[in-house]
Design brief:
With 108 residues, the chain is mainly beta. The chain has a domain of 72 residues. Helix content is 13%, strand content 59%. The protein has one helix and five strands; from the N terminus they run H-E-E-E-E-E. A hairpin with a 4-residue loop joins strand 4 and strand 5. The protein is elongated. The two termini are 24 Å apart.
Length: 108
């Protein structure tokens, strides 16, 4: 989801429901940003989570066939391209945890 669409979605949610919590976390060691918005919607407490991280261009695996040796995987990341992932969660009161919503199941 592009930045402009994400901001439009957040604006609509804020106008309709208002946010309970809205945070942005930077993870420089993984070159990743996680933005979380929690609100009380019509179907209960909902959490939207957007993760922005660089595209993986290549993986380099270094290993040895000796017993006890370790495997090292090195990722080559893009400097200008990013991947946006948006996940939806619903609060399960009985289990007291967030349950991920599959968007394919919403229309059923």
């Amino acid at each position: 989801m592009h930045q402009r669409k994400w901001e439009d979605l957040l604006d609509k949610i804020e106008k309709m429901f208002g946010f309970t919590e809205h945070t942005t976390e930077e993870h420089p060691e993984h070159r990743m940003t996680v933005e979380t918005a929690i609100f009380n919607g019509a179907s209960g407490r909902i959490k939207l989570e957007r993760t922005v991280k660089p595209v993986v261009l290549d993986t380099k695996t270094t290993y040895s066939k000796r017993i006890g040796s370790e495997v090292v995987t090195e990722y080559v990341l893009s400097d200008d391209e990013c991947v946006d992932t948006v996940r939806f969660f619903r609060w399960d009161r009985l289990a007291r945890e967030w349950e991920q919503i599959d968007l394919a199941d919403i229309g059923r």
